[in-house]
Specification:
By secondary structure, the protein is an all-alpha fold. The protein folds into two domains: about 100 residues, Orthogonal Bundle (Rna Polymerase Sigma Factor, Chain: A), CATH 1.10.1740; about 80 residues, Winged helix-like DNA-binding domain superfamily/Winged helix DNA-binding domain (Arc Repressor Mutant, subunit A). The chain contains ten helices and no strands. It is elongated, with a radius of gyration of 19 Å. The chain starts with a helix and ends with a helix. About 10% of the residues have low confidence.
């Protein structure tokens, strides 16, 4: 590895993005790819449930990322922006290519959504107690947006605030989506 290449490895993400935009040099982009390809692949794998599909999605994401890198404004960390980019790509893939219909498009984030405690509330423990093999079948059936928030919450152990930042919606919208997703997963689970 050349001395100049070693210098590139030590640059911050945002510096690399600036260099890619200014020079178009793929070497800088390669450093970003090396840093984040496994993370993007793992997110795509969690989302798709398939190694082959995750590889294809990861490849597509990095091609689009190279083209659209100039849209990164630096308002958040690059890794946060990349996660949102990955999430949006996966959801768009399912909407467009797998013709999944009726995805949740409710924009209630402007309002204060709260789940009333009582019989309609679904405790986290109820989801965590589900049989893992049966739950995997349920997640293959679940809508992509339902699956994503559940994986972020229970697999990646993200807080509501972090999920909201990653997905780009309000915290109340995340709570609403989690509630609906848990309810839907239990309905599918109990019907299997």
């Amino acid at each position: 590895m050349e001395l100049d290449s070693l210098r590139h490895i030590n640059l911050e993400d945002e510096e690399l993005v600036t260099l890619v935009i200014e020079t178009g040099n793929a070497t800088y982009f390669g450093v970003l790819y090396d840093r984040y390809s496994d993370l993007v692949y793992n997110k795509c794998r969690s989302f798709s449930g398939s190694d082959v599909m995750a590889q294809d999605l990861t490849h597509d994401i990095f091609i689009q990322l190279f083209v659209k890198l100039n849209t990164f404004k630096g308002n958040s960390k690059f890794s946060t922006w990349l996660f949102s980019f990955t999430y949006n790509h996966c959801v768009n893939f399912y909407n467009r290519d797998l013709k999944k219909k009726n995805l949740e498009t409710d924009l209630i984030e402007e309002y204060n959504y709260s789940i009333p405690m009582g019989e309609n509330d679904i405790a986290d423990e109820e989801i965590l107690a589900l049989n893992a093999e049966k739950l995997q079948r349920v997640l293959k059936i679940a809508e992509p947006e339902e699956k994503v928030v559940l994986l972020m919450k229970y697999q990646d152990e993200m807080s509501i605030k972090t999920i909201a930042e990653q997905v780009g919606i309000g915290e109340s919208a995340v709570k609403m989506r989690l509630h609906r997703a848990k309810k839907r997963v239990l309905e599918i689970y109990n019907s299997l």
